[in-house]
Design goal:
heterodimer; A: Nucleotidyltransferase, domain 5; Nucleotidyltransferase, domain 5; 2 domains; 5-stranded mixed sheet; about 25% helix; B: alpha/beta; about 20% strand
Chain lengths: ~260, ~375
């Protein structure tokens, strides 16, 4: 990563620091969960000359159209075929319902079609990893809360220690509930819900600040996360955090005679 | 679609094996179909998982629940279809997936899955119109080739079409309110018969008197070829409310009388459509009526249409019941038919929740996505 700035992560052809990426695997990673569509292909023949092809486009919708052409481009530019992949990595949410399913369905289909194992990482975990690289050096060493605007006055939120390990479960919270996350420790809120939650936290008397309001998941960082994890057992599950909107219908049937 | 095109000699059509994927409503389905060089079809596998259980409590299909259920199991369904067919992904000639019309969030799951398999194995993608798949199903299990008159009746659609050839459809009429399958579902719900309503109403009608209630035959006698079932639904409700509390015999009679009204209305519309078909198709074209869609399984409707075709000199064709409801064999077959004509689609293809077969047909007021 270049010198850390509080700037949105809109890297298009990002090269990792030499030596960081040493998994000895070929990995295809992608994210479609929130306000972007990103794809990364990591090649590692075991030499120091690893290669990463990363594409990132911001978009509110349209991931279902862009994802496959972007994967096609990244794979071709990287010069490998699907048979050369050792692992597929994808974000499993939380995010928009449709965006989350696009990534999961694509990953499960690739896994089936190429007999490749799959790693699923939550968007909150991935963004915590990204934020750890991106926040100012003066803020390093402080705990982060990734907060994503979930609309309807709610955020998807999770707290991470300075090293990136999770300190709370991923949750769907009201703004007020998320603000209370800062009650026990100083927090830097990051993500699309950061400003509103940090304001609420400050008003409640906690020490908090907001950073990286444009933070989005980026598949380039998924490559590292994918190397560190072992493939899950069983099928990849989406992390919706919010139930489907549906109410059982009240019975409108007519009265029947007793038999 | 303007006017009838003369039959043209078919180009050489190579044999193909196609995977089909269907997720437009509440069935998660995958199938593998082979098409030989002569254009004859063979189903190698056909897996359908219905989501009725997931939606039952809601009295109808909930889009988000449907999409979640598709995403939960589609890869396993595809896997079962591939192993059932004894085919490897590299053996496929194309991957076909329903891209519309239907529920947006479910369509996206199926189409992205099809795209991923197609991309991973370098196969062409075919984004299939679900209505076209219904329209062409008869060619998968019989020798019948277009042109023919088609009645498409399902939970989402009720249309009369002239099928001139693959990709060439002329819409003659559509419903201006409820689809016929929807009318069955609503009647079943009213009477407390459960979901899906078609089989429930048909079963209840078996011991009923179709003449007890003279329900209206909607649109009967009207010159335009549209359908309407909202008024019939209201007539059924008013009548059934007056009968409360309903005995089993009341329910059977209401169902039988409802089916008789439906059959009468549909037969009236088709009789008129037959005259239009004879006018518009080239002189001497064999007269065929094809019925497709889930409601084609209804026996009362079939009997009425058999009588009608017999009296009008038409031949009635109904695909096997398993291929009338939503399935992926028909998607794979439509894909194979389009592939044979060199019609494939790009990987950035968007789902189309509304996708009329005949884009030139004037919208019918009230038809909405059912047009």
């Amino acid at each position: 990563m270049r010198d850390s700035q509080d700037s949105p992560l809109t890297t298009h052809h990002w090269q990792p620091t030499a030596g960081r990426y040493t998994g000895g695997m070929n990995i295809l990673a992608f994210d479609t969960c929130l306000g972007a569509c990103s794809v990364a292909v990591g090649l590692d023949a075991g030499s120091a000359l690893e290669k990463v092809e990363a594409l990132y486009e911001e978009m509110a919708t349209g991931q279902a159209e862009r994802l496959m052409p972007m994967i096609d481009t990244a794979m071709r530019t990287a010069g490998i075929g699907f048979a050369d992949l050792n692992r597929i990595a994808v974000t499993i949410g939380p995010g928009t319902f449709t965006g989350t399913r696009i990534g999961i369905a694509a990953a499960r289909a690739f896994a089936l079609a190429t007999a490749t194992s799959v790693i699923g990482i939550s968007t909150l975990q991935l963004m915590a990893e990204e934020a750890g690289h991106a926040v100012n050096s003066s803020r390093r060493g402080r705990a982060l809360a990734v907060t994503v605007d979930a609309h309807r006055g709610q955020v998807y939120a999770q707290v991470f220690a300075a090293g990136g390990s999770p300190e709370s479960p991923p949750q769907l919270l009201t703004i007020e509930q998320a603000a209370v996350l800062a009650a026990e420790r100083e927090l830097i809120f990051v993500g699309s819900g950061a400003a509103i939650v940090a304001t609420a936290a400050t008003e409640a008397g906690y020490t908090a600040e907001a950073a990286l309001p444009h933070l989005q998941p980026n598949a380039a960082f998924l490559l590292f996360a994918a190397q560190k994890c072992e493939p899950q057992e069983g099928p990849l599950k989406p992390l919706y955090l919010r139930p489907a909107d549906a109410k059982p219908q009240a019975g409108k049937s007519l009265a029947r005679a007793r038999a | 679609m303007t006017g009838a095109a003369p039959a043209t000699p078919q180009p050489a059509r190579p044999a193909s094996v196609v995977l089909g994927i269907e997720t437009s409503c509440d069935e998660t389905a995958a199938a593998v179909v082979a098409r030989d060089a002569a254009g004859k079809g063979r189903i190698l596998s056909n897996i359908v998982r219905s989501q009725w259980e997931e939606h039952r409590a809601f009295g109808g299909v909930v889009p988000e629940i449907a999409a979640r259920a598709h995403a939960e199991c589609l890869d396993e369904i595809v896997s079962a279809a591939m192993s059932g067919a004894g085919v490897l992904f590299e053996d496929l000639d194309a991957v076909a997936a329903t891209a519309g019309p239907g529920l947006n969030s479910g369509l996206i799951v199926g189409l992205i899955t099809g795209k991923a398999i197609a991309l991973a194995h370098g196969k062409p993608l075919i984004a299939v119109n679900h209505l076209e798949a219904h329209a062409l199903t008869v060619g998968l299990t019989s020798e019948l080739a277009p042109p023919y008159l088609l009645l498409l009746v399902s939970g989402g659609h009720t249309q009369l079409l002239l099928v001139h050839g693959v990709g060439r459809y002329e819409r003659l009429g559509t419903t201006i309110d409820d689809a016929l399958g929807e009318a069955f579902d609503k009647t079943a719900k009213l009477l407390g018969l459960g979901f899906p309503g078609g089989p429930a109403v048909e079963a209840a009608a078996r011991n009923g008197d179709p003449a007890r209630f003279p329900f209206p035959r909607p649109m009967a006698g009207r010159a335009e070829l549209h359908f309407s079932f909202a008024g019939l639904k209201t007539a059924v409700r008013v009548r059934a409310q007056a009968l409360q509390p309903l005995t089993d015999q009341d329910i059977a009679d209401v169902c039988a009388s409802f089916q008789a009204a439906v059959a009468g209305s549909v037969a009236d519309r088709i009789a008129r459509a037959m005259s239009v078909a004879v006018e518009r198709l080239p002189a001497g074209t064999p007269r065929h009526l094809v019925v497709a869609g889930g409601v084609a399984a209804n026996q009362a409707l079939r009997t009425a249409l058999q009588d009608l075709t017999d009296s009008k000199g038409f031949t009635l064709h109904v695909p096997p019941v398993a291929l009338c409801g939503d399935n992926a064999a028909m998607i794979a077959w439509a894909g194979a038919e389009r592939l044979a004509l060199g019609l494939t689609d790009p990987l950035d293809f968007s789902v189309r929740p509304r996708w009329p077969l005949d884009a030139s047909a004037a919208p019918a007021i009230g038809a909405g996505v059912k047009a």
